[in-house]
Specification:
single chain; 147 residues; alpha+beta; two-stranded antiparallel ribbon; 3 helices
Length: 147
């Protein structure tokens, strides 16, 4: 896993490096493949953990809902993978951890706060245009001007 763009995180005394790929694949851009991130030991890398989440990447092309990957989620996924048999010191095939919607809530300790990608930023799920401070409303030609 490339070091550039990765972040360090300590879990139970071990230091890991994690990252989301910089560009979506065609499948991820179309929301056919989920948001995923990779994890490996920072020193003496061995096995790689690939975590698949039940939502789309933030830069998907269709505006499908997404979440921000927070450190609490990364720590929870690493602990769950270690509990399921991932040996981070053993080189070999990647260990895949698929997180379901219900598991996501348990890992975060609260219901996930989904975001909807929009032209000028992200709108919280269930929110509206008023949640985008930089956004301006565009009036149709049929609507009389307020001025």
């Amino acid at each position: 896993m490339p070091k550039k763009g990765s972040r360090l995180i300590t879990v139970d005394g071990a230091v890991f490096r994690w990252r989301v790929s910089h560009k979506p694949t065609y499948s991820q851009g179309n929301d056919w493949s989920p948001l995923s991130f990779a994890v490996e030991r920072a020193e003496e890398p061995g096995g790689v953990l690939v975590v698949s989440l039940p939502c789309a990447r933030p830069d998907n092309w269709l505006g499908a809902r997404t979440i921000a990957i927070r450190p609490v989620l990364v720590v929870g996924c690493i602990r769950r993978a270690l509990g399921q048999g991932w040996n981070s010191a053993q080189p070999g095939s990647a260990f895949t951890l698929s997180v379901t919607e219900d598991e996501l809530t348990a890992l975060l300790g609260e219901p996930p706060q989904y975001l909807i990608p929009f032209l000028w930023g992200m709108i919280p799920e269930g929110g509206g245009i008023e949640d985008l401070p930089r956004c301006t409303q565009i009036w149709s030609r049929d609507t009389p001007s307020i001025n």
